[in-house]
Every structure is written in C-alpha cells, then in structure tokens.
Recover the amino acids of this structure.
C-alpha cells in the first residue's frame, strides 16, 4: 500500500469511528449561514480557528478585535442554538453537526455554552444597535438563536455542493497551485459584484503595481433579495477571467456568509485570503458595506475605512492591502481614469446596476466600453428582454367584479399570440383542484392565495404567463406574492374595483342573495372585509368599462412596459 492509500484508509477509519460515536449523540441541523461557517472552519480558511468560538475568544473579539491569545480576529464565528437545546447540553459532551437533511458533517466537542449580549455584539461589530439601519444587526436580533456554543470541531464530510466543483478548491490546494505556477505575489480579489471593463482596468493596474498575479474569489453565499442567481454570476466571472492572459488570473469560489460588517469584515476577508496563500488583498473603499451596490451617499461605513483597517492589521496577518480605486470611463479620451483623478471639466460615463438591468429588460444595447460582450451574453441568458420573460397578471376584487371574464379574454389573446405558454388560475378552478380542503376563513384564504402565488411564481420563472383571478381580499398575501413573483419576472396587479352594489346586482352565482338570507356567512364585501390594494399597477371598474376595453387596458399596459410586442395583433 502506498502512502496516499494508507492515509486514505486512516481517514476512512476515523470517519467510520466518528460516525459510530455520533450514533447516540444529540445533533443539530445547521442553517445556511452556519454551514458556510462550518465549511470554512473545516477547510482551514478560518485558520487559526479550529472550531466555533469559545466564550473567552468571543468576548475578546468584541472587546479588542483579537482572539484571547492576542492574534487579530475581527468578528465572532459562533454557533447559535436555541435555549431549549442549550439546556440539554453541557461542556465536555459532544454535539453532532448535520446539514439540513440530517446528514452528519462534523462533531463539536463542547467547551462553552453561553448567552451572548447581542446588543453589545451589535455595537461592537456593526457599530449600531438599530436593526432598521443594518441588515447584519437585523439578522443578529431576529435570525440568530439566543445561546452560543463553542468548541473544537472534528470534520467528517464537507458540506455537499453539486455545482461548479472545479471552482471550490480548499485553501491548501489553491496555495499549492500558486506555488506550482511559480506565482510569488498573488493579489486576492474578493467580490460580490458583477465585473465589467472598468474592473479589468483596476485589476490590471493593481497587478502591475504589485507585480502580482490575481486570485479572483467571488462569494458563493446567501443571496440578498434581488441578487442574480449564482449560476449566472459564476458564468459572468468565467467570461470576465477570459479577458486576461491565461497565466495571469485564477478563479475560485468562496462559500461565505457575508455579515456586511464593513471594515471588520474586510479584515476577516484578508485573513481568509492569507489562508488561501495570497500575499496581497485588494480592498474597495466600500468593501463589505451593507449598501455597497448603491452610491457613496448611501454607504453605512465611511468610504475608505475598510482599506484603513486592513492596512493597519495587514503586517500582523501577513498580507498587504492594495487599494481598489474605482475607475470611470472618459469618452473624450476613450480610456478609464481613477475617479479621484477626474477633473471638473472631464465628461465621464457610467452605468449603474439598475440601469444595466433596465437595458437588458428592454433589449437595449450595452456599450462595449462598459461591459464585455461575453459577460453581456451570459446576463442575457438570465435576463432575456421583457417580451421573452414570464409574467403574472394578478386580478383581485369582489365576487362579481369581472375578474374571470377579463382573465378569460386575456387568456385567449395570449393563446393567439402563441409566444409563451399560458395558464389560467381562476379562483373557482383553484378552489376545486389545489385548495379543495380550504374554507373561507381568513387563515385559509391567505393559504389559498399564497398557493396561487407559488404556482404563478413557478410559471413566471419558467417564462410562461400566469393569469390569476382570486378574490384575494388581504394585503399580506398579495404582498407576499408580489415579492415572490417579481424575483422571476413581471408581476402586474389588477384591482377590479367594481362597486359592491354593482357586483351585488350581477350576483351570477347567487352568492350575495344567500348571504342576505343568512344561508352563508363570511362573504367578502358583506360580512367579511375586502382590503383594496395600495399599489395596483392597473385599476378597472367594470361598471363603466366594457369587457373589450378592460382587456385593451391590460394589453396596452403590457406593451408599454415591454412584456409583449403587439405587431400583427
Ligand atoms: N364566503 C365566501 N366569500 C367569498 N367568496 C365565496 C364564499 N363562498 C364561496 N365563494 C366563491 O368562491 C369563489 C372563489 O373564491 P376565492 O378562492 O377567489 O377567494 S379567496 O381569494 O380565497 O378569498 C368565489 O368566486 P368568484 O365569484 O369568481 O370571485 C366565490 O363565488
Ligand atoms: N366589463 C364588464 N362589463 C359588463 N359586465 C361585466 C364585465 N365584466 C364582467 N361582467 C359581468 O359580471 C358578471 C360577473 O363577472 P365575473 O367575471 O364572473 O366576476 P368574478 O370572476 O370577479 O366573480 C358576469 O355576468 C359578467 O358577464
């Protein structure tokens, strides 16, 4: 047996022994954030940490920005557990750490269990206790359990990933590749943004100044609402890397749960980059700011603070800070300039991320000075122009307001267009198929409406047209659906605000008559409320609008917003 197979055997025996030991252990299924932390603890990206923090390290981090032994460490890496579990555990015992399906990944040898002072933590790490001002504080107060548990970890398996395995190499392998390639100076570039032409100039400038190669390490972590899916971003990064000479740059993904703690998080990123073998670390003025996608006036931390703090701790960590100076395009000279070198008389060009998204949605050209065509091609696969995206028409209103009639008219129009699959989710159809067991209580109506929203979101995601026509009397479930569906395509709420008296007169199903006679209770508009939508895209009163006019109003809206092209209709 050679050395390699022998060490593999030792590893398998250890895993088998630990698995047996773990059979009788209490266990906990980790959430996404905890899994990312565990992965970086196990693969040594968080070196010198060898487990979730113990109490004295945690307190020292909050007080001094270092571990109890004095080595720089800016933020807690703690495992939070509910109090009910904490009271059943004790130091000296073990806890199994599992993924969301209960698959055992590691064993924690418990050293400490304590209740943290979250206000103190918020103030020390984020610089505020106001959860409305900072998403990291919001998560700490609302999405973090009340007890922390610390101790050394013995890893059995790495958390499972099925995507981009070639880009998920651990620090030891990446470090080895640098050495094999003969790279002595390597600049780590940690990013969560899409990268375009100006970024290439910034990276080239930094590489020239430091005579270094580049390790581009985008974050594969927990997406914020409105973020692109990470499949698209990774393909964009691959396309970006192709713009450099092959021997200059290497791409790797970092499984990392960002806390958006600005300067302190930038120091943590610097430690991680050092552990991957980088000698330099590129830091943006707004690095890890919770509002880094926005303009300078909206940032939470003072611009440049992250660069300052990394520079200060760089010598101790063993990594040199390289400032990433934002560049802008000057069309008069057909080149990029650092923003701080722009003179008042120089004309500059920029495209914000929302502007870029708008250009993609309306199929407008994206200038080559801004983005590489290969990156744009990847973005276009995810953001097809609006007329190729899916969308949901969500009609809401009293029974008899004209929802089904309009829904059917539109269904026929879209079927005639034949460019996207169309699904009609009328209130009655849903009630007799998806929601047969539900009644008309508030709770059941909310479930019913959310179910419709879920189905519509799947249809929209797959680029179809969903036409929904429930009463949907409450704002909560309508808002829930709006937020869910708009992630995948268009969401257009149509308020059918036909007056109650008109609906009552129509009473095609005899619903109102039965309510009047006291035969049924909880009828919307009679003895159950209808809360009108506050932000409907279209409002239609069918007491003074014909069926054809109502359909035309919707089609005109869709055309104006780019969701349909009506030539030939
Ligand atoms: N108590 C009560 N209140 C309101 N409506 C009632 C009730 N009982 C039965 N119906 C009939 O059920 C049809 C579908 O209702 P929805 O599923 O759209 O309602 S909800 O969105 O869940 O509130 C709805 O269909 P439409 O007339 O097409 O709106 C009603 O005719
Ligand atoms: N734009 C309209 N103008 C006149 N009558 C309408 C219009 N839309 C619907 N109606 C009539 O109102 C009644 C109820 O319409 P329906 O579409 O079934 O309402 P809902 O689905 O909101 O309960 C039907 O008899 C229908 O013919």
């Amino acid at each position: 047996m050679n050395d390699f197979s022998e060490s593999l055997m030792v590893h398998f025996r250890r895993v088998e022994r630990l698995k047996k030991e773990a059979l009788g252990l209490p266990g906990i299924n980790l959430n996404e954030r905890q899994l990312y932390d565990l992965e970086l603890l196990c693969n040594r990206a968080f070196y010198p940490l060898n487990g979730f923090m113990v109490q004295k390290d945690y307190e020292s981090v909050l007080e001094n920005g270092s571990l109890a032994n004095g080595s720089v460490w800016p933020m807690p890496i703690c495992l939070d557990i509910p109090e009910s579990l904490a009271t059943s555990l004790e130091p000296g015992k073990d806890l199994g750490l599992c993924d969301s399906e209960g698959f055992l990944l590691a064993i924690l040898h418990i050293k400490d269990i304590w209740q943290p002072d979250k206000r103190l933590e918020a103030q020390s790490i984020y610089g505020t206790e106001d959860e409305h001002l900072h998403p990291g504080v919001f998560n700490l107060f609302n999405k973090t359990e009340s007890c922390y548990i610390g101790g050394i970890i013995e890893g059995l398996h790495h958390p499972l990933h099925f995507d981009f395995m070639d880009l998920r190499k651990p620090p030891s392998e990446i470090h080895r590749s640098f050495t094999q390639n003969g790279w002595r100076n390597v600049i780590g570039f940690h990013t969560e943004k899409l990268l375009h032409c100006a970024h290439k100039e910034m990276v080239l400038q930094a590489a020239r100044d430091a005579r270094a190669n580049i390790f581009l390490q985008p974050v594969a972590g927990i997406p914020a609402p409105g973020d692109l899916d990470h499949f698209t971003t990774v393909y964009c990064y691959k396309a970006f890397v192709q713009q450099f000479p092959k021997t200059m740059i290497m791409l790797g993904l970092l499984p990392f749960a960002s806390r958006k703690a600005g300067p302190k998080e930038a120091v943590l990123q610097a430690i991680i980059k050092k552990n991957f073998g980088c000698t330099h670390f590129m830091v943006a003025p707004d690095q890890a700011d919770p509002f880094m996608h926005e303009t300078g006036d909206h940032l939470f931390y003072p611009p440049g603070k992250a660069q300052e703090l990394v520079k200060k701790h760089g010598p101790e960590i063993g990594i040199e800070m390289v400032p990433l100076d934002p560049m802008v395009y000057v069309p008069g000279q057909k080149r990029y300039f650092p923003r701080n070198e722009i003179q008042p008389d120089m004309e500059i060009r920029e495209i914000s991320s929302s502007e870029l998204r708008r250009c993609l949605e309306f199929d407008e050209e994206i200038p080559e000075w801004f983005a590489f065509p290969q990156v744009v091609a990847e973005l276009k696969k995810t953001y097809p122009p609006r007329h190729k995206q899916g969308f949901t028409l969500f009609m809401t209103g009293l029974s008899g307001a004209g929802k089904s009639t309009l829904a059917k008219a539109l269904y026929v129009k879209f079927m005639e267009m034949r460019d996207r699959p169309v699904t009609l989710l009328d209130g009655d159809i849903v009630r007799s198929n998806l929601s047969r067991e539900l009644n008309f209580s508030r709770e059941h109506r909310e479930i019913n409406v959310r179910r419709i929203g879920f189905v519509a979101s799947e249809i929209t995601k797959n680029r179809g047209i969903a036409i929904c026509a429930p009463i949907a009397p409450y704002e909560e479930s309508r808002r829930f659906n709006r937020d869910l569906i708009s992630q995948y395509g268009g969401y257009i709420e149509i308020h059918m605000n036909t007056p109650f008296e008109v609906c009552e007169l129509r009473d095609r199903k005899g619903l109102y008559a039965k309510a009047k006679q006291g035969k049924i209770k909880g009828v919307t508009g009679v003895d159950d409320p209808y809360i009108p939508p506050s932000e409907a895209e279209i409002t239609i009163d069918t007491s003074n609008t014909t069926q054809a006019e109502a359909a035309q109003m919707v089609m005109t809206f869709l055309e104006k917003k780019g969701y349909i092209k009506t030539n030939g209709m």
The chain has a mean pLDDT of 92.
